[in-house]
Amino acid sequence: MTRLRRLGWVTVGFTYFLVLVGGLVRVTDSGQGCPDWPTCHGSLIPSFDEHTLIEYSHRLTASIVSCLLIALALAVLIWTRRRRYVIPMAIAIVLLIVQIVLGGITVLYDLPQPIITAHLGTALALFGTIIVAAVLLGINKPVSGSYKSARRFAALALTTAILTYLLLLSGSNVRGTSADLVCPGWPLCGRGSTSLTWIRAFAGGRRVASDGSHRSCPPRSYPTSSRRRRAPWPSCPKRSAR
């Protein structure tokens, strides 16, 4: 069990690093550094420029995580077949397959925003599942305490995890739709805006800064976007083109 636990936490560490590298790919616009999939520029080891190196590093890290996760799943099946370990590992393998498919679609279809968000969401779900598996592998005895208090803590932890998960996905969507600076003020939308602006934004049924959980001013036209121009929204001052 000690070796399994160590392998579990090594997998957690590499998965965390994979998420970081994926974020680096996003912020540097390196998603098309390798325009084909599963190869990169038609070869397994391409010639590198800045964007190709970043995207290739992401794929290489993903390959390492895949190997570690498969090794961990096989080790669990061979050395311990208890339900509490097998279930999270089975979920992790399914999420890994979905993640690989989404990664290919993301590249082949020129980075569509819904697929990018789904790609991140699956990565975060996979990361959380591997953490659960690693923690369970280190627990040999039941945790002390009443059943009622355990249920309350589990409900609180699950609610917090779900809300944090949705927050991360909405943040990715804001970044992907270039709506990060639509509202230049904080915590309200725009300088001198009031809570009435928030009410108008939602009541008017207009799209809210890419997502309703971050800001409440609808998007406007961007120089690099093909979207149709929209009229400026009250209380959201104009900003210069980036």
Summarize the structure in words.
This protein is mainly α. The chain has a domain at 2-141. The protein contains six helices and no strands. It has helices at residues 2-27, 50-79, 83-108, 113-137, 147-176, 195-203. Helix 2 runs antiparallel to helix 3 (83-108) and helix 4 (113-137) packs antiparallel against helix 5. The chain is flat and about 50 Å long.
Feature tags:
242 residues, mainly alpha, 60% helix, flat, disordered C terminus
**Stretches where pLDDT falls below 50 for ≥5 residues?**
198-213, 215-242
**Structural category:** mainly alpha
Helix content: 55-70%
Query: What is the β-strand count?
Result: 0
> Strand count, sense and closure of the main sheet?
none
Give me the Rg, rounded.
22 Å
Round the mean pLDDT to the nearest integer and report it: 78
Report the span from N to C terminus. Answer: 54 Å
Principal-axes geometry comes out as flat
* Percent strand: under 5%
How many helices? 6
* Assembly state: single chain
Give the helices and strands as they follow along the chain. HHHHHH
